[in-house]
Design goal:
Radius of gyration: 18 Å
Order of helices and strands: HEEHEEEEEEEHEHEEEEHEEE
Bound molecules: 1.7.6 4-methylpyrimidine-2-sulfonamide, zinc ion
Structural class: mainly beta
Distance between the termini: 55 Å
């Protein structure tokens, strides 16, 4: 009602710099990946990215108020190789998406092309004692980004997308009682672009080695629509969660490498 104190609706990306000056930093994410400027680096293929997730690592799905988040118990879910000088452990995965039926929604773009959604698998460097220590270190995090395109249903994503209706409001949480291997969300072809960037939502720490898979994975229109079962606060009250993506940021001379 009008007597309630409206909870402050989070400021949009173009205001983040007021509270998080690093928003205008030198290694911000996402970026537009200009494929002709990406440099093939043989070292990446000589030491292939190793993804070894266990199938009982996913604990729960939460509505964070900004996305869904599958919380992972890092036991046995590790990545290494490729651009990484250390072993990193999966801590959570979430996504960013656009309006119903639209083609914008991804954070990274490829030669200016957007996808309807982008999945982020967040990992922390095992050289640190926990994710809290890693989160603001230059080599603290590694995030694998996977573009979602609209097409046939993704059988592997269905057990997760079916849970969104159970966590409509911020802080809602449902346990994942079934075995689930997040590797099923990766495209078959493991080629990627990699560059040094940041978290794409506040606190925007410049601590992420980004690994953006070249190939999208197909999910159905219904699975994309299921993302809107998640609700969040809008200026006019509670509404469907959508457009929770940050637009591309200045490259600032960074090199993007490619397999
Ligand atoms: C853990 C975390 C926090 C904020 N933003 C991100 S993201 N979108 O860069 O993956 N991850
Ligand atoms: Zn993200």
């Amino acid at each position: 009602g009008f007597l309630q104190v409206a909870s402050p609706v989070p400021q949009g990306p173009n205001k983040w710099h007021e509270q998080f000056p690093i928003a205008k930093g030198q290694r911000q994410s996402p970026i537009d990946i200009v494929t002709s400027n990406a440099k093939v680096d043989k070292a990446l293929s000589d030491n292939p990215l190793k993804v070894s997730y266990s199938n009982n690592c996913c604990q729960s799905v939460t509505n964070t108020g900004a996305s869904f988040q599958v919380v992972v118990d890092g036991a046995g879910t590790e990545i290494s190789g490729g651009p990484l000088d250390s072993t990193y452990k999966l801590v959570q995965f979430h996504a960013h998406w656009g309006p119903l039926g639209g083609d914008e929604g991804s954070e990274h773009t490829v030669d200016g092309v957007t996808y309807p959604a982008e999945l982020h698998l967040v990992h922390w460097n095992q050289k640190y004692k926990d994710v809290g220590e890693a989160v603001d270190k230059p080599d603290g995090l590694a995030v694998i980004g996977v573009f979602f395109s609209r097409g046939k249903e993704h059988a592997g994503f269905k057990p997760i997308s079916d849970l969104f209706a159970k966590v409509p409001r911020k802080a809602d949480k449902v346990d994942i009682s079934f075995n689930y291997d997040p590797a099923c969300l990766l495209p078959a072809r493991r080629d990627y672009w990699t560059y040094l960037g940041s978290l794409t939502t506040p606190p925007l720490f410049e601590s992420v080695t980004w690994i953006v898979m070249k190939d999208p994975v197909e999910v159905s229109a219904e699975q994309l629509a299921a993302l809107r079962n998640l609700l969040w606060e809008t200026p006019s009250g509670e509404g469907q969660m959508c457009n929770n993506y940050r637009p591309p940021q200045p490259l600032q001379g960074r090199l993007v490498r490619s397999t």
